[in-house]
Each structure stands twice: as structure tokens, then as C-alpha cells.
Amino acid sequence: MQALCRRIASKSSRRFLSTPPALFGQQGNVATIVLNRPKALNSYNSEMVELLINQLYEYEKDDSVKLVLMEGAGDRAFCAGGDIVHLGEITRENQLHHKLKMLRKPVVSIGDRVVMGGGMGLCCNSKYRVGTERSIFAMPETKIGYYPDAGATYFLSRLGDVGMYLALTGQRVRGFDSKHLDFVTHFVHSSELGEFRNDLLGCCSEEDLLYCLQKHENLDNVREFSFENNLLEISKCFSAASVLEIVERLENSGSDFAQETLRTLSVMSPIALCISHRTQILSRSKNFTECLRMECNISAKTFQLGEFAEGVRALLIDKDNKPNWNPPTLEQVDNAVLDDIFNDRTIDWQPLP
Question: Which of 72, 88, 105, 146 satisfies CB 3.0 to 4.6 Å to 42 for a cystine?
Fold first, then answer.
């Protein structure tokens, strides 16, 4: 695991050493944040996390700042996740997400194009979230031997069985579906983003912001929720008490949707699926802070399993797409191992003041 982390960190630092990972500014009463790693789809690293935390504090205490606008550099992504390679970074990352959600000034994130993994955390933990027809939201962590974190234990668990489906499958949520699921609060057509941004930069208060959002929201071509025809089956299958039972229900269904979902689940880490399933159930009774604290403890134990390292190797480093999951099947996942992961509360994670 340590060797893998060094490979990731070294590769990342060589590519982006001279480039500021985040840019900050202010126009009138609007402070701006640009996630500035476009070649890495604006994925955040430890340096960006520190810069964001420090700048949020500055914006919070600056009386001239009335709201904060956050967006991604380039034309490919808002943020595709995090280059986070050890637990210390996870705890700091979660402090960022908590600070973002609890900031005493409204944050507007423009979630255009790719919004995945930790990027979903940055967007969904903002008070106002703008999506477009090009938006693609997803939490694909189970495919790399991990589980949806960055606050996803909180915001996905609020979606019930649909949230469980998204947490396990990493299914992509596109366009207006993101508004149906409340991943975004407002929907603006991509052709109007320039004008919307210009108007937003002229806002002097949250009241002005709300008027701006209402003015530019495009609901003329609202589409039905694309999951609509499968909602009953999602509820029937993903309400099961275990991943094995979810698979059994899908197998008994025989529908095209069920078969496709089974194929998706078959390539995921079995133990990561079980961890994700349990985190979603437990999170339903927790508040946001409690969810982030739970994530830190689960992450510490999950890293020790080696699944994340193997998933990153297979999909991101060697790219052979042949991870050697341990154990290789759901039937072989040891409940005692799962209990050990969830019973460990040695990390007393605390949010920033």
C-alpha cells in the first residue's frame, strides 16, 4: 500500500508541481474558487484541500464577501474526485467537506460535466448546486475496492433504496436526473452558463443570488426521471438486508435491468460492496458530522484490507482491469471482518471550528 501511495503521489507531483491547484479571487461581493487541475479533471490533492480550507476561513471572516462561487477549470469536469492516498488526507478532506457545508455564507457550485467521487462531495455539500444537461454525477468507489465517502454516506443514504443502488453500482446520473435526485438545486442550460456566471458575479446578497438562479433556471425541456421505470425494482431489490440478498433478488427478477445490474456488481470488490451497503444503512440514522466521523474510522480499516490498493493498481496504474479481489466472491466475505471494521472507533475525528 505504501509503495502504491508513493507511485501515485510522485506521478501527481511531477505533473502538477508548478501549477496552482486552486485559484481564488473576488469580484464585488462574490468570492470565487476555481479548482485548477484540468488535466486531472480537477481532482483534488492534499495541497488543494489545504488551500480550500484556508481560503474558506478567509472568505467567512471577510465582511465584503456575501457569497462564494466554486467551479472547475477547463471544459471537461467540475471535479472527478480526489488524489487522496492515505488516512491523514482523508481526515483533512472530511474537515473540508464539513467546513464547506457549514460555511456561514452561501456557496454556489457549478457542477457542469464530470462530478464524481470527492467531486460529488464538493458539489453536494454546497448550499446551492447548479447542474446542466452535460452533468454526470457518480460515486464509482466500489469498482476500486472502496466505498462512497466524502459525505456520500450522508447524502446518498437520504435517497433510501435509490441511494443504495447508486452506492453499490456507481451508476452515472446524467443531466436533469441530477435535479430529480437533489444532487443539484437548480438547472441551467450549458449555453447560458456564461450569462448566468456574469449575473451571479454582480450579486450583492443571497437574495440577489436566488433571483439570479431563478432567472436562469431552464425548465423548458424537463425530462422525466430516467430511473422511473425501474424504481419499483430498485426498491424491491436494494431494500434487502445484505448484498447477497440483493443479488439473489436480482437473479430471481430476470428483467433486463436486473441482468445489467448483476453484470455491473460482478466486477466490483465483494467486500467493498458489503462495506458500502452497511455504511448506507447505518448513515440513515446519523447526522452529517456523525457520518463524516464514521467515514474516517471505516477508511482506516478499509485501507488495511488492501482492496483499495489493488483496485487502484488494476484500474488506474497498470490499467489491466483485472483486480484480484480478496475475497473474490460475496459468499466468502467474512462477517467478522466487517464487524471489526465497523466496531473500530479509535479515530476521534472532529470538524474544524
Answer: 72
pTM: 0.92
- Cell numbers standing for residue 105: 455564507
Written as nine digits, the cell of 132 is 446542466
Neighbours of 271 (CB within 10 A): 25
Distance of CA 35 to the CA centre of its chain: 15
The catalytic position among 89, 93, 141, 310 is: 141
Instruction: Give the whole-angstrom CA distance, residue 149 versus residue 330.
Output: 21
Catalytic residue among 72, 111, 117, 118: 118
82 is known as an active-site residue: yes
Strand runs labelled E in the chain: 22-27, 30-35, 67-72, 77-79, 107-111, 114-116, 128-131, 136-138, 173-174, 186-187
Instruction: Write the pLDDT tens digit of every residue in 190-244.
Output: 999 999 999 999 999 999 999 999 999 988 767 789 999 999 999 999 999 999 9
Catalytic residue among 82, 145, 151, 163: 82
**Whether 141 is catalytic:** yes
* Residue 248 among the catalytic residues: no
pLDDT in tens, 10-47: 444 444 456 899 999 999 999 999 999 999 999 999 99
| Cis peptide bond upstream of 327, omega within 30 | yes
Nearest Cα to Cα of residue 164 among 259, 63, 281, 74: 281
Q: Which residues contact 42 (CB under 8 A, 6 or more apart)?
A: 35, 36, 72, 73, 74, 77, 78, 79, 80, 119
Is position 25 annotated as part of the catalytic site?
no
